[in-house]
Write a structure and sequence with these properties.
Length: about 325
Amino acid sequence: MVYRMTSALAGLLLLAGIATPSLAAERVIFMTDWKPEAEQGGFYEAAALGLYAKHGLDVQIRSGGAGANPQQLMAAGAVDMAIGSNSFFGLNLVKAGAPVVAVMASYQKDPEVLILHPEDPANNLADLKGRSIMISDASIDTMWEWLKGKYGFDDKQIRKYTGNPAPFIVDKQAIQQGYVTSEPLVIEQAGGFKPKLFLLADSGYSTYGSLVLAKSDWVVRKPEIVQAFVEASIEGWRAYLNGDSAPADALIKKGNPDMTDDILKYARDRMREYGIVESGDTKTMGIGAMTDARWGEFFKMASGQGLYPVDLDYKKAYTLQFVNKGFGLAASH
């Protein structure tokens, strides 16, 4: 759901004090950005199938949720690696001087959508300029800034999104944000209709999604552990999306009783349909791919909006050391 995205600025300065565990430790505490769900399925599949253990790791997955801040827990030494919801996280970490770096992009496409009623006459995002749109507070300094820059949206259009679909369902003129993998199903079940969707990523919103963040010190001193985690996670994503998802789904339902087989299947189907994990550069580089060109494009957009100094060393936000090696390539489309 949308509220998995914690504020991109909250608590980032605390990261300066990150402690690094002993080189001898092969245990990895990995924290997600929301409660267990299909959107994290590759990591749970890797755990359920013993892929982390196969790569010599003892990975403990800790789930996020409302009020949880994986980055703060990294700063306290309680978490070794974590999910950053989008590329804004990486740039904000650099801006804060935090020793954390993105080592893998689980999503090639951010799953953010704007949702409309099926009879709405809008044909594209440009048609929504000037109309009221319900978005969460956490999205104001991320996707909303992109919409303002690309389509001329204005802050006067903002209406608060609380995670409750009822206001949208009852108002046929309403527009709300959501994830292509979750909110549309909730609306269909509660409202009895399939909503119209505009996936921002298909209109040029170039952020990566579900970034795997690691301590910068690990990249230097423990690259073999980072590499092992990345490779096992990629194997997990390939298996979850293209094989038997039951092992991961069982772990997800155990950790989140609100999950059902229907919800999990819907999210998994949408990830495949829209190429959330497997698309673009994964066709030649494998799952988890990132490129200098795409990070540069994203930074140019974000700094052009005044969100970052133009001289910010954005390349400190990521490393290509552990990806683009063809992992998961056999199943990429």
